[in-house]
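writing this on my phone so excuse typos. first protein, seq and then structure
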Amino acid sequence: MLPSLPSRLVFSGLVLISIAAMAFAMILEHRLGLPPCPLCMTQRAFVVLWGVIALIAVLHNPSGWGRRVYGALCALAAITGGAVAARHVWLQHLPPDQVPACGPSLEYMLETLPFHETLSIVLMGDGNCADTQWTLLGFSIPEQTLALFTVVTLVCLWQTFRDYGEGNSNATQPR
């Protein structure tokens, strides 16, 4: 059954997962009052990125290698977001004496520092990123996000490398 799933349906599912993840993030921020740290905002950017790529794939509905390109691009976004989430989880599990000091706000850094320096500082994380503010079933938000990125990466890689049945049709017929 899985190999017969239309690629458009899989990409639509990836779009819906992205929308649901961002809706959940907005609920955590605006309803529960949990402000996102710089690493959280970076992870959100990669969730949106994979969602936008998947949406373009749905609208374009490519055939052949186009499906694989969109799958690979979505996978790249999810892998990169997963790397950021893994760094975030690592920061949360550091002993208290090894947690980096809290830095300036993202807004301040964007206003005063060159973009590449701001990006470097954001990806390193700071003390704000090490706080576990909320859990669900014992998992922090970055741990949940890492699990989501892992699942999405697997789906995207499957989408990239699966057999679409587009091979040489003469290869299966006897001569």
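second protein below, same order as before
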Amino acid sequence: MNKLTLASTILAALSLSACSASNSLAKIDSDFGSLDNDNDGYISKTEADDDAIWAHFSNIDTNMDEQISRSEFNAYMQLNTGKVAEDSEVSESAFKAEIAQFDPIENDFKSLDNDKNGYISVEEADDDDIANHFGYMDTNKDKRVSRNEFISYITEHGSDVAEDDALDMVKKSS
């Protein structure tokens, strides 16, 4: 019985120490866009190395692919609102606040798929100024956007993210 009590006491002490360590993590004082230096829709370990996000990296990178996607970042920030963020803008790093800064997507999928392979690559997205939307559209995280991902993204968010030919294309496909 004494061994069980001792083991329980040790376990409780370790749990308390782990909890207090997580409370002392540095606060994240940057939004996703400013951390994603190469604008590929992900925060790599290299990009996170000089920022307060480094201490949180393994907690945010839930799929353990050595990079943080926008959705992982936003989920972590929303889950830890007030605990890890410096201010309300960062702690509410939700989609709508982020896209307000983006230029809307103007072109339809066919126009953006420059090599006509059925996908928009990171390079094609950069060429056509939709790079900010890329991480949100690429739902399967294969670093390319399919026609279905493109249509789903615009269908879900409408004129908040798109205008002109992009919106017309989605309306026609419905």
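The first helix runs from residue 2 to 23. thats all i got for now
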